[in-house]
Amino acid sequence: MQYKMNYSSPVGVLTITTDGTHITGLWFDNQSDYERKLNDKVVAQEQPIFQQVRTWLDHYFQGDNPTIDFPLKPTGTAFREQVWEILTTIPSGETMTYGEIADKIARVKGKDKMSAQAVGGAVGSNPISILIPCHRVVGADGSLTGYGGGIDKKIKLLEIETVEMAPLYRPKHSTKP
Description:
The protein is α/β, with parallel strands linked by helices. It has helices at about 35-40, 50-60, 80-85, 100-110, 115-125, 150-160; strands at about 1-10, 10-20, 25-30, 40-45, 95, 135-140.
């Protein structure tokens, strides 16, 4: 059984899911197919871990860099889980390219090379957005490539974290220099 709650944020309504012990998902309002990905019945019911996540998100959206002190349990293939683990090492306010992640995985696997495209697929399938910061992954040239929640949300999250973005990739409505 999975449990869910909604959280109103500056990037829209977020749906958070838990198995009662671990956070299993954090989804944007445009990702309404999340229940199929969980392969389990999902019910709206308060769980103790949800208060911890609410507090974390409150601090995060205020521009703080809170520590995740509750367990996450993303479920995927071994390769995807390896990529998601690397995402958790990207510090707030910084970015990493798909190629850099591919290089890290290649080194771990003892290979000369790993496909940045395969990494992109794994990043795009991250079930716990924001907490596992896939929004911090950019193209080789710093471009803000696709994001499950939408590029507008990716830009907003990076702005909250005060990531320096090239003027070319700033939204036209941005007031930042």
